[in-house]
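Anyone up for a design puzzle?
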């Protein structure tokens, strides 16, 4: 079977969960003997360079690089697609218009409806309109969680029969000998911190526990430097500036951060899936996770849950994990077992099954 992935996400993300998903999917399909093409002649992604189904040039990130790549890639995109003669066209991100699929069945993956739920409930801005257009022209829509499918149906009125739920997985594996990112004990937060990510809840819970704040640093990985607003909140909460650290790094450094953390905290108000809790579980880190949206679907009973609208609930969870070693170890054990239930081979096999059903 000929399977075509377009360039969209690879011109947007250098690193990230969505582009990793397509990289893992493409690699798995190739291993099954399928003919796969990732059509991204110009891109910024750091995952796809080693895949034999992709031939392109990676550009450094600079302002405007996404638009440059997409304009250049679009010039002969239709001709390249027709020459490949795909049976499946799988769009990797949302756009208002796309080249004719030439008789191929068109598949789209929807990751979440965060924008519609939090930023634009009326669905009138460019991203929401592009997502709606991509959904409407697709023969079938993959949702990465049952919660995402529920929201897709709520906001766009999609027929449930046109949807399937196929869960994602995590890609990090424990590795011995990785150096600690900090000498001091620390709590770990991973990813962006703005809006629905609810980082403010973590700061408030941290500040409410002076004994924890005195013993544990709060380490943030990714998400950019602490903002002026975050620093101002820390000052108002009487959190010393050197008690909250922000770093960046590659997957090996992230793995080290998970492996050496006292606990991983995920206070998000909404997730389409939630890969970081699974990454933490894979790496043997106890997880404290909000009980919202798709997260209970992903973590099951393998994380200590809390109400993300209530900093006191998070503070109580922190106290339980940090001062009860037996409880923390039980969540490490349950976390490893839970993470093993989600795998990229399963994701690939479910996706390939769908492709075969669509193409008869």
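Challenge accepted. My sequence:
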């Amino acid at each position: 079977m000929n399977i075509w992935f377009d360039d969209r996400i690879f011109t947007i993300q250098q690193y990230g969960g969505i582009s990793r998903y397509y990289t893992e999917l493409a690699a798995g399909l190739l291993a099954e003997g399928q003919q796969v093409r990732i059509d991204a002649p110009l891109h910024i992604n750091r995952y796809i360079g080693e895949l034999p189904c992709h031939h392109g040039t990676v550009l450094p990130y600079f302002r405007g690089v996404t638009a440059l790549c997409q304009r250049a890639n679009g010039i002969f995109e239709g001709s390249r697609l027709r020459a490949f003669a795909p049976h499946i066209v799988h769009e990797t991100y949302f756009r208002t218009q796309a080249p004719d699929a030439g008789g191929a069945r068109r598949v789209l993956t929807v990751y979440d409806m965060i924008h519609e739920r939090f930023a634009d409930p009326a669905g009138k801005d460019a991203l929401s309109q592009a997502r709606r257009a991509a959904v409407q022209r697709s023969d079938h829509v993959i949702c990465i969680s049952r919660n995402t499918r529920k929201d897709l149906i709520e906001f766009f009125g999609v027929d449930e029969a046109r949807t399937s739920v196929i869960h994602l997985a995590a890609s990090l594996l424990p590795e011995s000998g990785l150096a600690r990112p900090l000498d001091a004990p620390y709590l770990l937060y991973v990813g962006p911190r703005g809006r629905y990510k609810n980082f403010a809840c973590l700061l408030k819970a941290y500040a409410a526990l002076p004994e924890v704040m005195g013993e544990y640093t709060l380490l943030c990985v990714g998400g950019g430097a602490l903002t002026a607003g975050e620093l101002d909140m820390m000052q108002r909460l009487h959190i010393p500036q050197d008690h909250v650290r922000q770093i960046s790094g590659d997957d090996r450094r992230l793995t080290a951060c998970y492996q050496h953390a006292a606990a991983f905290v995920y206070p998000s108000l909404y997730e389409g899936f939630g890969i970081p809790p699974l990454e933490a579980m894979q790496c043997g880190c106890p997880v404290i996770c909000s009980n919202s949206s798709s997260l209970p679907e992903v973590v099951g009973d393998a994380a200590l849950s809390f109400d993300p609208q209530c900093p006191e609930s998070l503070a109580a969870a922190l106290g339980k994990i940090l001062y009860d070693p037996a409880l923390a170890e039980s969540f490490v054990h349950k976390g490893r077992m839970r993470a093993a239930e989600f795998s990229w081979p399963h994701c690939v096999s479910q996706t390939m099954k769908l492709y075969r059903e669509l193409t008869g």
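A detail worth pointing out: The chain has 15 helices and 14 strands.
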